Amino acid sequence: MLSGRYRAVNFPGAYVYGFAAGINNAGTVIGTADACSYIYKNGQFKNIDVPGANRTAALGINDSGIVAGWYFSTSCNCSFVYKNGKFLSFSYPGAVFTAAAGINASGQIVGEYTFDYQTYHGFLTSPITQADFR
Asked: Taking a C-beta distance cutoff of 8 angstroms, is the pair 91, 98 a contact?
């Protein structure tokens, strides 16, 4: 039983819905509070919202510090990866919605996509690496 082994992660500002979604082996936590996402490291929060997005959800982080998640904007319901201030956006070919949910140590991303918002499918990407952010 984990009784007494909890620590609250209280995101900045006022929010209704907040959750910690991922943690890497260095103890860096990523999470979402309402429509904003954060990295929590060494007691400090850093906002990681995709520029121009109405909503960003960070859901996974690997030991290289690459964050994976999804976002909504007026032009895209897509996935993203983030590292050191740089975002890369991607979508499953032809899909109307792509949601990255996790990233492993090799940089492979898993998630879901849909062509019609009725049937959803899983995906696995080729590895994303540090070189992709240059």
From this structure: yes
